[in-house]
Amino acid sequence: MGSHQQGLREPPELRAVYSVGKLARIGNVNADLLRRLLRSNGVALLRGGRSFYVALSDIQEKIPPLWESLCLTEEIRRAGGRTGGERGHVARKASSDPVRISRS
Length: 104
Description:
The chain is mainly α. The protein has a domain at 18-79. It is built from four helices and three strands, in the order βααββαα. Helix 3 crosses helix 4 (64-78).
């Protein structure tokens, strides 16, 4: 059975940590926005010089909706699809309601 049938998605390339900037590019969002989102949901940020790094396992555990979104965008990218990031476009939610991600 394929991973799609079980609801599992292929995670981004396996690394011990990712820079917040790299994850922001994968997710097609602003790095400062992503950093604030991670901090507000209790994800540990590791500082290395001027950059912040984060363990993917921490995102998977503490912010499952963001984890799923990162996996989906990486899956589309690997399949050769476009996520909007190639030309700097930011996908926007149709509704004007803010999206809130909270820990359960």
